[in-house]
Specification:
The protein is mainly alpha-helical. It has 9 helices and no strands. Helix 1 runs antiparallel to helix 3 and helix 7 runs antiparallel to helix 8.
């Protein structure tokens, strides 16, 4: 059920981003984007975001890493049979996942609290320029902290996998999507240490 909510929320956001401007200008994508009012779609996304972030998950905050050859431990463990993880690799993934959640859950709680404070400024008719600037600064600081936990865990995870495991992971998670190219234009297979 959670996975379905995540997929729905991401599909909604992609639809809004991809078709929103075209819909406004040319009517393209109108049937897809107008199935629900835009605010209802965003509320669906917001609810899925809050549920997942409350659990310490990144909800797309590490896509930049994941799409480009830097897997995360949760999805590596979900694909452990396909990746043929060794006993040591699996143990290390479990340890990294536990450490990530231990660090991300309290930071995620701060993010959700700061988002709630921002909403309350407007709901309580207390919003003014100074209060909004302070609240947004707090939200973005908290979001940065959560995102860094996930991105830095992806860096560590990558180093535990072989080139072939990373290739299989990318194929399973992204198929033909995602660049998985290094900054020098090469493949990630020659990049990073293998343990």
């Amino acid at each position: 059920m959670k996975r379905a909510a995540i997929v729905l929320a991401l599909a909604v956001m992609i639809t809004l981003v991809r078709f929103g401007d075209a819909d406004a200008q040319h009517g393209a994508g109108h049937a897809v984007a107008s199935a629900l009012p835009h605010h209802a779609l965003v509320q669906t996304y917001e609810k899925a975001f809050e549920q997942n972030v409350a659990e310490g998950r990144g909800f797309g905050m590490a896509f930049a890493a994941d799409q480009n050859g830097y897997p995360g431990p949760l999805h590596v463990l979900e694909l452990k049979d396909r990746l043929k993880l060794t006993t040591d690799q699996e143990a290390r993934m479990h340890a990294m996942l536990a450490a990530m959640f231990a660090e991300s859950k309290p930071k995620s709680a701060r993010l959700l609290e700061s988002e709630a404070k921002l909403r309350q400024l407007f709901a309580g008719s207390r919003a003014d320029e100074a209060a909004v600037k302070a609240a947004v600064t707090e939200v973005e600081k908290a979001r940065t902290e959560v995102r860094l936990v996930h991105l830095l865990t992806h860096l560590k995870t990558r180093e535990v996998l072989t080139d072939e495991q990373r290739r299989l992971y990318h194929e399973a998670r992204w198929g033909e999507q995602g660049s998985m190219r290094t900054s020098d234009g090469g493949s990630p297979s020659g990049h990073g240490s293998m343990k």
